Here is the input.
Amino acid sequence: MTAPPTSSFSVSFLRKATELLFLQRRRSKLGVAVRSVRVAWSYLDNSSSSRVTVVFIHGFSSEKDTWLNIMGYLAQPARLLAPDLPGHGATTPSSPFHNYSVGAQVRNLLTFLDKTVGPDIPVHLVGHSMGGLIAGVFAAMFPHLVSSVTLLCPAGISMPTRSPVLAMLEDTGVNLMQATTVDAMQTLLWYAEAKPGHPISSRRNTTSSSFHHNHFATPTSHKLRTRSNRFLSRFYAKHQADRKQVVDKILSDMLPERTTLEDRLADIEAPTLVLWGSDDQILDVSCVDNIHRHEWINTVVVAGCGHTLPQRRPEVCAAYIVQMIQRSKRWLTDMESTAVLTSSSKIDYYFE
Here is the structure.
């Protein structure tokens, strides 16, 4: 009489049970235990019921509120989402022991979208700087989940011409992205705003345009802006110092990713647009030269603007985001046409 065959399920179950018992004994012997961490996402959501969703991914050491200016130019009905990435803002936990590589950040974003938008539902991605790197790689890895991609001065592209910030890092070893002193932070803000002149000699006479911008400065207002700049720089420097271990870990994990987006551009299937400030002092605009060979990717250089495109030119960014949404719906085929906006404009767009 032939013995009944053992099912593959039974064999697999027994093997797993044996392995688990063995691993449990090893863990006990070493005094280690299995732990899990649940990420509590903090994010902006306009709670629109629209089937069209735009997801904004911020850059390094930034946060979700950096997108408020652009959101202000986007009229309904699209749903707008802007999360704090792990290691940033109010998303918890924030730990120097986490993995902040691009691959890990992409997987984090996938989890976030599964929970907030739903599985297998495509979205329109917008990313700035490091967020542009993450958004672009996400689009390359999960093309079925992306309807369009708008990248603002994205990281992950090699620079034919070194930016001042990169040159400082390579020539002196000083990484302004790790700024924890007032002077270093003022220098970083200077470069971020692409101010003319030399930051070391003049940095105390400028301020971030995200907070103050006055073309007709009086001596009194000049002093106020200088004091405000020192206050803001001191605030940012302390914030960075308080989270120095996390900042250092993020930079360490991101360091090998200098050309990761460039290497994956060919894998992006969704309509893609790259916007770059002509005066970017952090990620040089010459990066655009390495994007041009991908003819299906549109590139636009925004004159007179540095790395802070979302803050300095939100109306331009919003106009192009709308164009990308329309293009993905085959309603707009000429990407050279640009919406004409005023500072108080709302952009109206319509979907099927």
About this structure: The chain has a mean pLDDT of 79. The chain has two domains: 43-160+256-328, 164-250.
